[in-house]
Amino acid sequence: xxxxxxxxxxxxxxxxxxxxxxxxxxxxxxxxxxxxxxxxxxxxxxxxxxxxxxxxxxxxxxxxxxxxxxxxxxxxxxxxxxxxxxxxxxxxxxxxxxxxxxxxxxxxxxxxxxxxxxxxxxxxxxxxxxxxxxxxxxxxxxxxxxxxxxxxxxxxxxxxxxxxxxxxxxxxxxxxxxxxxxxxxxxxxxxxxxxxxxxxxxxxxxxxxxxxxxxxxxxxxxxxxxxxxxxxxxxxxxxxxxxxxxxxxxxxxxxxxxxxxxxxxxxxxxxxxxxxxxxxxxxxxxxxxxxxxxxxxxxxxxxxxxxxxxxxxxxxxxxxxxxxxxxxxxxxxxxxxxxxxxxxxxxxxxxxxxxxxxxxxxxxxxxxxxxxxxxxxxxxxxxxxxxxxxxxxxxxxxxxxxxxxxxxxxxxxxxxxxxxxxxxxxxxxxxxxxxxxxxxxxxxxxxxxxxxxxxxxxxxxxxxxxxxxxxxxxxxxxxxxxxxxxxxxxxxxxxxxxxxxxxxxxxxxxxxxxxxxxxxxxxxxxxxxxxxxxxxxxxxxxxxxxxxxxxxxxxxxxxxxxxxxxxxxxxxxxxxxxxxxxxxxxxxxxxxxxxxxxxxxxxxxxxxxxxxxxxxxxxxxxxxxxxxxxxxxxxxxxxxxxxxxxxxxxxxxxxxxxxxxxxxxxxxxxxxxxxxxxxxxxxxxxxxxxxxxxxxxxxxxxxxxxxxxxxxxxxxxxxxxxxxxxxxxxxxxxxxxxxxxxxxxxxxxxxxxxxxxxxxxxxxxxxxxxxxxxxxxxxxxxxxxxxx
Length: 788
What we know:
Layout: H1 3-14, E1 32-35, E2 38-41, H2 72-79, H3 91-94, H4 104-111, H5 116-121, H6 128-133, H7 137-140, E3 142-144, H8 153-163, E4 169-171, E5 194-196, H9 204-213, E6 219-224, H10 235-243, E7 246-251, E8 267-272, E9 303-308, H11 312-327, E10 335-339, H12 348-360, E11 362-367, H13 370-373, H14 378-381, E12 383-391, H15 399-406, E13 418-420, H16 443-452, E14 458-460, H17 476-480, E15 488-492, H18 499-504, H19 532-538, H20 544-551, E16 557-561, H21 591-596, E17 605-611, H22 618-626, E18 632-638, H23 647-654, E19 662-666, E20 671-672, H24 674-680, E21 688-692, E22 697-698, H25 700-709, E23 715-720, H26 724-738, E24 746-751, H27 757-761, H28 766-773
Parallel strand pairs: 3-4, 4-5, 5-6, 6-7, 7-8, 8-9, 9-10, 10-11, 11-12, 12-13, 13-14, 14-15, 15-16, 16-17, 17-18, 18-19, 19-21, 20-22, 21-23, 23-24
Antiparallel strand pairs: 1-2
């Protein structure tokens, strides 16, 4: 691994808060205070980004000067010479301040939040000063197009023609809508050092031609699709690959890709997305193509990461990549991470690899399949240097082993910034042999964890029953409130319950089905409080969860997920028709707990799933009003399953979410009608919408009106209970009406319980499928800043 990325990982643990961001006009809702002609910086706020996601200026990437996305027209108006600071203000209100009176440093910072295509193709044409500033090296050195859904082939061509020689880092990840011929224009970027083409269409010949011209390239990310042929790579291309030290490769077919050509690899990231069956229904084999080299060069490897999608073929292929590592473990290896769902059995070769690692290397990051850790003494023998990331997801690791073997008996682990214990049901108990998953946790283990890992910024405790005892001061929420540097947190619903409150309430019958049947809520009258004061009065603010939310001032990502929740849309299987009932301890979690989340001023991403006691959804309104930076919202199975009891509150909430970009709703019997889409139209920044609803209905006219009013929407996925004919007609209508103006438009409208659902899902671009369509916990899913 190169020194620069490693230092970036270290920097995340070096200070309690990341660098301050001077927002100014770059984000809606403030950032610049004016006093006469002076510019005052906004208060310090964190910029840690989404857990495990791609880092950048903001969590969702460089996305525009304002929360609305920074369109070309709006940007040009904002920077037009002689205009006031805020469009539409009178001269008295703006005190006559002109953007052009600001220093170059301030203007460059403002411009850094504007998409590069807008800067080069539009903003620089407004006046001479901006013409110079827009071509400043600080703005053209790194070009991020991965979230610029309005970019097209012609814009890329013009951009490369104008500033190609000034670009050193180019990120086009997920630009699935661009034709493969667009890649030809990258050749103009002769000085490229980093290039990310994940999710882009590229053939072996085009890749060869492009890489032959990029002699300075050191970091590369590509997809390997069916038909890839390494024998078509020219000698000049292989020479470039021999100098590449960082490679990210997404495999859609069994292949080594370009790995054998990369003889200087220090960081290797592999994403296995190979399906077990072809479209024609034939079983695929994990054997590699005939003639491919089977000798990847790992001698300089520092970081090895592999993420497997479900499927046997993916496991077969990754074993071929690991075979070379088992023969000779790189001496400088310091991060070894394999993320594999389900069962991934250990073999003789992998055992030899782990034994060699235990003898020869000291690790800083570790993630292994659960079968490789469960029941083995591996952790006792592995040596760690200054670890920054651990993932023991779905392992049967007990709290005793966690403290003794990983945290060294509670010794100082200030270097650890990210910890994933999702699905690790016994990780907060002293031993797991005779323990039931629902038994109370041992608070002393959690306390040791909190004290030792005091700089944690990303913590995932979801998919387990973490029940606190009645001991005063030892509740899980009270202990976690000491982690003042947390940026992202995932918890099971039952873990945030006040123990005293549960004791006072009558016990819930274990055989009851609270999510299926319940007393109907009166329709037509708003039952939630109309202002925050009333809501605060209704909530006893001494509750442990309310206190936790108040103490985590800089939290950006929060997930509260039921321990037994499973999405109706698994990856490669038919839709799930029945869901498990929520944990008994979770029965009291409802509107007041949701209202507590509104204390998180800087919240950017929120996931709530399987909260059974949602009655009116009043807490959602508080979040909409208070959390003005919210960009990603995912709600699933809230309240009773037979009725969407929180619909009225959701509609009110959406009217305040001006920065919301991604919305995912999963709820049976959801009615996506005129009222819903009218409220959703207030979310002017919305880009992606996904609705999953068994027996849900939709109104085609309302969908079309919504798409016409929300010009930024580029993804519309709806899996409902409508007929196949209704779904196809609506999908075709949307594509015909809006595809021309929105090149990145991706529309999938399909019956949720249809037998061909898996075939439809396989055509969804990986960016949307992985980030929003499929439900999963994303906190600490990957090490922070794993890829740029």
